[in-house]
Specification:
single chain, 13 helices, alpha/beta, 2 domains, 6-stranded mixed beta sheet, about 20% strand, D-Maltodextrin-Binding Protein, domain 2
Length: about 300
């Protein structure tokens, strides 16, 4: 069993849903709930992000004619659980948590992501990287110098904060997914924001962080660009997917897509896009995340 599988093994409710998922779920009549529940993968400032997302929630209400409630997540796994169990209809996942969720319930469908503006570490476009950062004034100046250090990972279901480090970086250093063979201690901080702050505050020596999440920490004034040095970066991977349940009625799904994909045309939404360092949402499809599936398969193969 891989690290990713163990991370969600405790969700007992998912097991019952898995047995039901697939053709039986598809055969059901479409669902048109009176209210929609929306959730996002957690960050250090999830409550603040709820305020940022208000223009989007308002647009969803306008386009669907339904009330929209927000589910406050406690972990990546809680967003997975909510969508798989059907009481969250729309969610913002990480690429890996989306792949994990869809394995549990095929009735989940990606429909959009956001394009990012160029930032401190983030490059422009609908992709991002995992970076391994240390404090700028630390003694560590190479990947080799990090052997035996304490490293921070975000969450077991994180793409850039767990999957990429274990598969891609693990291959680089020759340990495979067992980073524990290289670092003296591997700490799950709970999120990218927490990982970035843990490096700055000296609670870990180094950490794997998503470029756009590191930018968020800097933009909120919690750290400065010059606080960090990057010792390794991954290739570009697709941004966080916007996902809804595919068993929603087609007119409702069309209204949800319209709310996201036309939001940038509304002047009232500028604070939202500014708040997430983006310009607009763009369409995405499930196959855009096949690169993540290949990484998951590689981790499983290495763990056998």
């Amino acid at each position: 069993m891989t690290f990713l599988e163990r991370s969600i093994a405790g969700l007992a409710t998912i097991g019952a849903v898995v047995a039901y998922a697939g053709t039986a779920a598809i055969a059901q009549e479409c669902k048109d709930p009176s209210a929609l529940v929306f959730s996002i993968i957690p960050t250090e400032e999830t409550t603040q992000e709820l305020d940022i997302y208000k223009p989007l929630l308002d647009k969803l209400k306008e386009k669907t004619g339904k009330s929209v409630e927000f589910f406050m997540p406690t972990s990546y796994a809680s967003v997975i659980e909510g969508m798989v169990n059907g009481w969250v209809q729309i969610g913002v996942h990480g690429p890996n948590s989306y792949v994990l969720a869809k394995e549990k319930d095929p009735a989940l469908e990606v429909f959009a992501t956001y394009t990012k503006t160029k930032g401190h570490f983030q490059e422009e476009g609908p992709g991002y990287r995992a970076v391994l950062v240390v404090k700028a004034d630390s003694k560590f100046d190479s990947v080799e110098s990090l052997k035996g250090t304490v490293v921070g990972l975000a969450d077991p279901a994180s793409t850039s904060g767990n999957l990429l480090p274990r598969v891609v970086f693990g291959d680089l250093i020759g340990t495979g997914p067992e980073l524990e063979k290289y670092f003296s201690k591997v700490v799950y901080t709970g999120g990218h924001d927490q990982s970035a702050l843990a490096v700055k505050e000296g609670r870990v020596d180094d950490a794997f962080v998503a470029t756009h999440r590191l930018d968020n920490v800097i933009d909120r004034g919690l750290a400065k660009t010059e606080d960090y040095r990057v010792l390794w970066q991954s290739d570009v991977i697709p941004q966080d997917p916007m996902v809804y349940r595919s068993d929603l009625c087609e007119p409702l799904k069309a209204a949800i897509r319209e709310a996201f994909l036309t939001l940038h045309e509304d002047p009232a939404a500028k604070p939202f896009f500014d708040g997430i360092n983006s310009t607009k949402f763009v369409p995405m499809k499930d196959s855009d995340y096949d690169i993540i599936r290949k990484l998951v398969a590689a981790e499983k193969a290495a763990g056998q």
